[in-house]
Amino acid sequence: MGETVRWGILATGGIAERFTTDLLTLDGAEVVAVASRTEASAKAFADRFGIPRAYGDWAGLFADEDVDVVYVATPHHAHREAAGRALEAGKAVLCEKALTLNAREAEELVTSSRDRGLFLMEAMWMYCNPLIRRLAELVRDGAVGEIRTVQADFGLAGPFAADHRLRDPAVGGGALLDLGVYPVSFAQLLLGEPDTVHAHALLSPEGVDLNTGMLLGWSDSGASALLSCSLDADTPLTASVTGSLGRIDIPRGFFFPERFTLHRNGHEPEEFTSSDDPHSLRHEAAEVMRCLRTGVTESPLVPLDGSLAVMRTLDAVRDRIGVRYPQEEGLRHPGEEAAVTRA
Description:
Strand content: 15-25%
Distance between the termini: 52 Å
């Protein structure tokens, strides 16, 4: 692939706007097409960003020979179809998180990309953030010793109306896939896939989780992670990693940090900062472009096996709390009985 990477944007919502804004700050990034389910929405988006082609259906984007990579920004329930069709059309794909509704769908996408030798990456921008990468490096190098606990939360004050997409099971609503994916991904970045999963939730009348607490465990190290997500509580949005030799604290906004503090036993605290805009999605876009230019089909920063492992954990949490989406049939995971309270 040449120096210029030509992007197609699929969907025109808020996250697509944010991504396109940040993408266009990168040298060699060109947005050549956008698609939506309506021509009016696609045209308005194209006009805003100076995109030459706007399609009122997905097929036009997938057939566009000038598109190298498709950014999928649809709601969760459409990720499997949209990313799958893009791969079938021979396009590289960056797909929003959570990668799909469940691990079964994620495995289908990963198999499709690997069979075709095409690039696929989950848009877990946290993993591409320079400070999160530095934190993971410190932990790997033993800065806090053996990890004992990880804590992280992501909650919004709400309330969200019953007809909001976050309350709609048909589109993968609930706190877990939108918000809980961040604490789970953070813990698994440092510890890998857990051996045990416990969860408790408050469910909405529609059957999605409004508030979920998770306790993950790793038998080989004895480490545990205490995580939470909420659609009706403004939680601290902080994270910490505690080990046998120290602790790392990330203040509010742990998934887009401006700084974090390393506390080593017997030493003065060390603060790590970054001059980069912590809210920018440009780092994940730059990683996609780096991989495409070098012929890499799986990003080492956001590996597909890691995305699959996170999806398995999210499935296990939903199994414990009793959340099912209408598209799912017979999806069961072994484990503890559900611990559920209904609103």
